[in-house]
Specification:
- Helices cover about 30% and strands about 20% of the residues.
- The protein is of the alpha/beta class.
- The chain folds into 2 domains: about 250 residues, Ribonuclease Z/Hydroxyacylglutathione hydrolase-like (Metallo-beta-lactamase, Chain A), CATH 3.60.15; about 180 residues, Rossmann fold (3-Layer(aba) Sandwich).
- It has a 7-stranded mixed β-sheet with strand order 6-5-4-3-2-1-22. It has a 7-stranded mixed β-sheet with strand order 7-8-9-10-11-20-21, covered by helices on one side.
- The chain starts with a strand and ends with a strand.
- The model has no long low-confidence stretch (mean pLDDT about 95).
């Protein structure tokens, strides 16, 4: 039997375009197929001619940096299957539809796009499934609804791929599965692996965020919160709702725009994948946090224009999280010039995105081809769905039989810092794009 191999087509020394090939004796499977948003957009470095040898794709979760390359793959004529959880399948359809409208990526055909959702196979957590010569199992990853750790084995060597993960219980999700994991090789994200990435306590972060929002509202301003539609938005909405119900945040409308409403409905339909307390809150009482009277969905351009034109304070939670498109562009075009307003980031901003430029201090950015002056206040209240340095170390130390660790999905400096921090008995690798490894 030949050794397993892994090859890195993306997310090696960068955040974005996750795509890793795992190869058994007669089997090739891609773990994720993402894009890297920004200008220019970047894709996995796998050639179209190589795709015909790929037997299947396994998606760890539905964020575009892990699934956005699927329409291109199917447009090449590829006819395999994509394996993932039920919520991920449902979310991928929503996110890809929106991505196609905003980015209109080249080399995607109508036929290819139509094939995507017909080529999924739904798998349950912790149920083994086989793709030719390799066995796989998915575990809860704690990053967003339906997100998965992926275990792959050829019978003698086991690889564990984290995708994006978190060991923190949130208002929406249980933490990543950590019990009784065995692997020889670990491929782990390092988004928040830097020495300076040890966050403030969640309580402190949320208290600061709530105080900042309250101050802006009391001064007559509007708070604009750009957010990923999946995971981060639901967490933010629950925080806002909790603090508004308790009277800490003044009672103003919380407007929800972009795909967030659709995605929240997917959460509600798949509440069995959410944390137990949330399920009980819905089942045992009439207090359904997904349907709070504080939430108001923006469903038309007229409603959006009315919100923009109103003088009263409000909170707007909208896509996209890095300002690469979506309704956030319209809000900022009209509202970024008023110093009373506030732009509050809650998630990671990839280098090269307008969000990162503003966070780094830019006073003028280009949004959808137009120059926008940034005069409103800008803050970051990071509510991360990614494991921090301490969580990553705890996860690594919990895996039985582990010999080698591949650090991916992190900026170059952060994963180098993480390598230095890991115990010396591990073989730690920092793969680069296109690099292949034999697993012995």
């Amino acid at each position: 039997m030949n050794n397993m191999k892994i090859k890195f087509y993306g997310a090696a020394g960068e955040v974005g375009r996750s795509c890793i090939q795992i190869e058994g004796a007669n089997t090739k499977v891609l773990l994720d197929a993402g894009v890297k948003l920004g200008k220019p957009e970047q894709y996995p470095v796998i050639e179209d001619s190589e795709l015909k040898n790929v037997d299947a794709i396994i998606l760890s979760h539905a964020h575009l940096d892990h699934c956005g390359y699927l329409p291109h793959i199917f447009s090449t004529g590829w006819n395999g299957y994509v394996y993932t959880t039920k919520p991920t399948f449902e979310l991928v359809n929503i996110l890809l539809s929106d991505y196609m409208k905003i980015s209109n990526p080249k080399n995607v055909t109508k036929e290819g796009l139509n094939k995507v959702n017909k080529h999924f196979k739904i798998v349950d957590y912790e149920k083994e499934f086989r793709i030719k010569g390799l066995k796989f199992k998915l575990y809860q990853a704690g990053h967003m609804l339906g997100s998965s750790l992926v275990e792959a084995s050829d019978g003698k060597h086991t690889v564990l791929y984290t995708g994006d993960m978190s060991l923190k219980k949130t208002r929406v999700l249980e933490p990543a599965h950590i019990e009784n994991l065995h692997a020889d090789t670990l491929i782990i994200e390092s988004t928040n692996a830097g020495e300076k990435d040890l966050p403030k306590s969640e309580t402190e972060t949320i208290n600061n965020m709530v105080k900042s929002i309250t101050d802006t509202i009391k001064q007559g301003g509007k708070v604009i919160i750009p957010s990923f539609a999946t995971g981060r938005a639901q967490e933010v909405l629950f925080i806002l709702d909790d603090y508004m119900r308790s009277g800490v945040i003044p009672k103003v409308p919380i407007f929800i725009d972009g795909m967030i409403g659709k995605v929240t409905r997917v959460h509600r339909h798949n509440v069995i994948f959410c944390r137990k307390e949330l399920q009980q809150r819905i089942l045992m009482s009439e207090d359904d946090p997904f349907k709070s009277p504080n939430f108001h969905n923006i469903t038309t351009k007229q409603m959006r224009n009315k919100v923009i034109g109103e003088h009263d304070s409000c909170i707007i939670v909208t896509t996209s999280g890095m300002l690469t498109g979506g309704p956030i562009v319209k809000y900022l075009e009209k509202m970024a010039g008023d110093h009373k307003n506030k732009l509050m980031f809650v998630g990671y901003q990839v280098e090269g995105t307008p969000g990162r430029q503003i966070l780094d201090g830019a006073k003028e950015v280009e949004l959808d081809g137009r120059k926008v002056q940034i005069k409103l206040a800008v803050e970051m209240s990071r509510i991360s769905g990614h494991a921090d340095r301490q969580q990553l170390m705890r996860f690594i130390s919990a895996i039985k039989g582990l010999k080698e660790v591949f650090l991916i999905h992190g900026e170059e400096g952060k994963r180098a810092e993480m390598k230095e921090a890991l115990p010396k008995h591990f073989k730690v690798m920092l793969p680069v794009l296109g690099e292949e490894f034999d697993l012995k």
